[in-house]
Amino acid sequence: MEKATLIRRIISYMLVLTAAPVMVVLFATVMPRRSFLLVAIVMAAVAVGAFCLNFEKEKDNGARTVLTAVFAALSTASRVVFAAVPGFKPIMSVTMFAGMYLGGDAGFLVGALTALLSNFVFGQGGWTPFQMLLWGLIGVAGGLFAPVLKKSKIALCIGGALSGILFSLLIDVWSTVWMKGTFSLPFYLGVITEGLPFTITYAVSNVIFMLILAEPMRKTMERAVVKFGIEEFRPVPSRKRNQKTEPLDGEGSRK
Question: Is 235 part of a structural domain of the chain?
Answer without folding.
Answer: no
